[in-house]
Amino acid sequence: MYAIIRTGGKQYQVSPGDILEVETVSGEKGTEIILDDILLVNDGETIRVGTPQIENAMVKADILAHGRGRKIIVFKFKRRKQYRRKQGHRQDFSRIRIKEIILSGDQQLNEPVGENPIAEAN
Question: What is the biggest distance separating any 2 CA atoms in the chain, rounded to whole angstroms?
Fold first, then answer.
């Protein structure tokens, strides 16, 4: 079973047990969050596509940590004009673990498939 969720302006494909880094979400480390912007759910038998979201569907996840990404250097210049600007940027993120995917109010028993590396944004 997997779902396509939208959080922080990006879309992610998630399954129970996945660990991923998303844009910063509010909450303390160790708390549970509910992501309710579900675009697609595949339960192994049927595929449900939302228009644009699936009603009464949610994904429960735990916040594992908050952090900052590696530093990106932004350098602007204009040739022959003595104009140079250097600026750094570090993006904040939250690392979350997907616990379960719930459809239409009925509780789905979702077992983690196994150890998955950090899911990449699609």
Answer: 66
The 10s digit of each residue's pLDDT in 75-99 is 999 999 999 999 999 999 999 999 9
In the block, which residue shows the tokens 């196994």? 114
Place of tokens 């596509």: 49
Flag whether 88 is in a domain. no
Q: Is residue 72 part of a domain?
A: no
In a domain, 86, yes or no: no
Tokens found for residue 19 = 């660990």
The whole domain housing 27 covers: 2-65+95-102
66 burial level (CB within 10 Å; 0-12, 13-18, 19+): middle
pTM recorded for the entire structure: 0.78
Give the residue from 13, 27, 15 showing the smallest Cα distance to 99: 15
